[in-house]
Amino acid sequence: MTKTAVVAGGGIAGTVAALALHRAGYAPRIYEAHERGADERGAFLTVAVNGLNALRDLGLDPAAILAEGYPTPLMRLLGASGQLLADLPLGGPEPDGTVTTTIRRADLYVALRACAEAAGIPIEYGKRLLTATPDGSGVSVGFADGSGAGGDLLVGADGLHSRTRQVLDPGAPGPRYLGLLNAGGFSAGPVPDAPEPGVMRMAFGRRAFLGWSAAPDGSVWWFANPARRTPVAAGEFTAASWRAHLLELVADDPPPARRLIEASDEVLGPWNTWDVPRLPVWHDDRIVLVGDAAHAVSPSSGQGASMAIEDAVTLGRCLERCSDVPAALTAYQRLRRPRVEKVVAYGKRSGSTKTAGPVGARIRDAMTPMIMRMLYRKGNPQAWILDHRVM
Ligand SMILES: Cc1cc2nc3c(=O)[nH]c(=O)nc-3n(C[C@H](O)[C@H](O)[C@H](O)COP(=O)(O)OP(=O)(O)OC[C@H]3O[C@@H](n4cnc5c(N)ncnc54)[C@H](O)[C@@H]3O)c2cc1C
Questions:
Q1: Measured from the CB, is residue 158 less than 6 Å from ligand 1?
Q2: Which sequence spans correspond to the domains of the chain?
Q3: Is pLDDT at 41 greater than 70 in this prediction?
Q4: What is residue 360's predicted lDDT score, i.e. its pLDDT?
Q5: Which atom of ligand 1 is nearest to the CA of 292?
Q6: What CATH class does 176-274 carry?
Q7: Which of the residue ranges 50-64, 83-97, 299-313 would you say has the lowest mean pLDDT?
Q8: With contact defined as beta carbons under 8 Å apart, do 150 and 1 qualify?
Q9: Would you list the DSSP string of 182-249?
Q10: Over pLDDT 90: what percentage of the chain?
Q11: Is the CB of 157 under 6 A from ligand 1?
């Protein structure tokens, strides 16, 4: 008889996990807390080549899924005075020409959900998982609207503040604040000195780190990471006060920080930056976590989406190879945990360079070109992240 799976969360990890389980012979059903179309329209992210390859390993076409995005295969790192520190390749091109790609989060959600729907995987919206209880050889779940569902397996793909994580292990550590805020936006049109196509420029400002790249329509997509000791509280800023605060933080930085903020109709954020470094428990016999629910990585790694995709594809492979669900979940955790914990640590290190004080910043800007030349002499030091293939 076909095994069934409840997938809690219709984001990146949940949708790809459902596709991977479907391929493994399961009948998955996705339950997403938000109503259809309520995705965070604003934010964008980068899917790196390792994430693209994991999609390809699942039989999907990454070029089609990322069609609304644009290639960003190179990171150009600039110092506090705008000087070039290093050019850092972000992997690829792959044999079919695909490279690390920048895309709005909502466009990625829509493309992945279209793949799930094309595969006949049902998606129910407005279903926020609250409870999960063992039920014979399966699991029963309850949603906030009072309804329920059940299956042989529950995949918790419910993101950073995962409810499934709490149900699985009420003592599980929560997300760790990383001392950075996130802002972002899209310039309403072209701006002077926009980066060359394919280049994601990143600059260490005096009080905020800035990243920006040019989209094919001429607009510039940007993000900023101001350092801040404590997380921002909900309602602490209005749209106007957040914009004004950011403008003040970048006032002494070289262009284009100020120009980009002024050229954007809306300044997104603030979001706090979190990770989840190590969970003691990723699964029991019938419940398993994937993506941010299992191990959020700092956005500074540029790997959150790609790790979520790799998890999902690996989980599918394990369930395909092993008909015993508990054994398959154990194999999944064994394959994924060492890699993601290394990426979490890498993301935290990358983020910590953004918060250097004035003296640290001078040392960083002086040393980075030499360190990068040394590191890259024998190839891309990020190859262990970017060249990974799901086994
Ligand atoms: C500002 C910012 C910038 C980032 N930049 C990058 C980047 O450049 N590159 C990159 O790879 N990653 C980036 N990330 C990280 C990336 O967005 C996440 O790692 C990725 O989205 C994780 O996917 P996920 O499916 O695990 O979680 P999510 O995408 O958060 O999806 C979780 C889903 O579960 C749903 N949900 C939540 N609770 C419940 C519940 N109880 N029941 C049912 N459904 C529920 C949510 O509504 C959501 O749809 C960034 C993150 C942030 C915040």
A1: yes
A2: 4-67+103-175+276-352, 176-274
A3: no
A4: 85
A5: 26
A6: alpha beta
A7: 83-97
A8: no
A9: EEEEEBSS--TTPPPTTEEEEEE-SSEEEEEEE-TTS-EEEEEEEB-SSPPPTTSS-HHHHHHHHHHH
A10: 86
A11: yes
